[in-house]
Specification:
Adenylosuccinate Synthetase, Chain A, domain 1, 17 strands, globular, binds inosinic acid, 356 residues, 4-stranded mixed beta sheet, alpha/beta, 26% helix, binds magnesium ion
Amino acid sequence: MGVPGSSPGGPTKQKEKNMIADIVVGLQHGDEAKGKVTHHLCSEGNYTHVLRFNGGGNAGHTIYHNGRKFVTHYIPAGVFYGIKSIIGNGCVLNSQHFFEEIEELRSAGIDTSLIKIAKNCHIITSDHLAEDGRDKKIGTTKRGNGPAYRNKYNRTGLQAKDALELQPFIIDLYEEFFNNENDVKILCEGAQGFELDIDWGDYPYVTSSHCTSASALLNSIPASSVRNIWGVGKVYDTYVGTKHFEPDDHIFKKIREVGEEYGATTGRNRQCNWMDINRLIKSININGITHLVLNKVDVLEKIGVHALYDEEKTLNFDDGEDMRAYILGRLEQPNLLRELQEVYFSGNKNNLNMPS
Ligand code: IMP
Ligand code: MG
């Protein structure tokens, strides 16, 4: 450590404390089954904290816990394992919906006492909800996200620390992570996905927050603490919103049916399409993915059709094995994919094929 005027070995000799952060992000348009991956990692990873770092009630994480289905919007998956579960300052939160979600979990017997909110997280007000409710242009989830982030950046928003009803939940993320006597091991849980990122997505058909791994760092997570970055995708693609996305072919209706591609938050039909391998590679590179999970292989298996886009051409494969071999081959080629260590092809909830 080359700090001028300091003794060799570092400027201070305090107790070395460990901080490790793993990050989970979506690689497509959200709904890649990130909830399944975070839930699995929570059960294995010995995390001390799970941190939601972007988005708000627009997210819908479907989680199967002890054979029961839960859909959470705000509360991180750590809550199912008694891990401190934090809504970070990168998020926006509607307190009424937050309390409803707590009540739902509590009545299902889940311990909700470890749920916390970063004091500088922004509040979604009833005015934000009403305004977003009138959106026709983007096809938002109408949860007030865009207006809440606008007021945050306009410096006219309300922070969670100033919302009376939230006082029992408020924490300071810096205190929590850095003035903690113990080592901290944080799982950072992203919402939405790369193609909905406000800068990297197809603007204006995007959400109002950053959905890449970089976004996690803004929640008191120093870059040097990051260990694994999990990227979650599907072997086909889906999108919800006003723009035209699904080609006119019956096969995509079939994918929607078999894959149960209906919005977890709004119940809307998700438009379906083949996966674009070039977009996926871009997303892997920009996020710095170390572990890739491609979900829902069982859906294409059931339908018996395997295809993807590469350089704007549709490639058809004889079977799933062929398609997976092709994907793996493409992931090996570009020299930017230096960091990618593991690739998992994963099926439904009974066939996770996840690392243990
Ligand atoms: P907003 O985030 O509600 O403002 O919606 C902006 C766009 O992102 C719309 O196309 C939404 O359908 C989409 N979107 C937002 N959250 C999710 C999500 O969790 N899954 C899928 N699409 C989402
Ligand atoms: Mg979702």
